[in-house]
Amino acid sequence: MRKITASLFISLDGVVEDPEWHLPYFNHEMGEAVGAHLAAADTLLLGRVTYDSFAGAWPDREAEGGEDAEFAKIIGDARKIVVSNQELQFSWRNSEHLKGDLIAAVAALKDEPGDSDIAMSGSVSIVRQLLAAGLLDELHLLLHPIAMCKGERLFAAGEPIPLKLLKSTTFATGVLHLVYTLDEAAPTGGYDEAKRHLEPRDRQR
After folding, report:
1. In this protein, which residues make up the domain named Bacterial bifunctional deaminase-reductase C-terminal (predicted)?
2. Taking the alpha carbons of 76, 31, 20, 46 in that order, is the dihedral positive or negative?
3. Which of 26, 99, 119, 133 is the most buried (most CB within 10 A)?
């Protein structure tokens, strides 16, 4: 079964909307992390807004042959699956429209043959739905040391989603690269269990 991974820029208070606020924190460490995430995949799963943003930039950067042309070619060569309820027309190569029920279609994608990841960047509403359905294997959060105090947040009201930390890296800018997966063995318990950890060690024996 193929693995689906998602990467998001996020503020301390959980804001993920229009993350141009992340640009002052972008350095070579973040560039390597974002590049490695997308380069590990041969398929990109994107919402229409994210796709339009990518399609409006990366083909031109590839054609211009600048410093990021090699990375632009990697994205251009990848299979790009776009989630949208609207009819779509594509000019960027290797792009296709995912139609029908999102959860059923993504479950079928995971069952396709292949060893490469299916990567997501942005596309917050899709990330939420896949998390809730248990279909997202890794959530990469680039947590920035700033509270935006306004804007759409990653997690909306709903049922709790227990996560397990797989990896954490601190960048020189103070950004944390946190990699989570769904935690099927999340801890449980109440105050009686928690208060034991407030007692002196000799009383816990």
Report:
1. 2-176
2. positive
3. 119
* Distance from C-alpha of 189 to C-alpha of 192, rounded to nearest angstrom: 8
Residue owning tokens 């993504």? 106
SS3 100: coil
Strand partners, 123: none
Residues 6+ apart with CB under 8 A from 124: 8, 16, 17, 47, 152, 154
- pLDDT by residue, tens only, the chain of 205 residues: 899 999 999 999 999 988 889 999 999 999 999 989 988 899 999 999 999 999 999 999 999 998 889 889 999 999 999 999 888 889 999 999 998 899 999 999 999 998 889 999 988 999 999 999 999 999 999 999 999 999 999 987 778 889 999 999 999 999 999 999 999 877 777 777 777 777 666 555 5
CA distance 46 to 52: 9
- CA-CA distances (angstroms) from residue 129 to 12, 135, 146, 155, 186? 22, 9, 26, 11, 20
Give 69's contacts (C-beta < 8 A, 6+ positions apart): 61, 62, 63
124-132 helix and 102-110 helix, angle to the nearest 10 degrees? 80
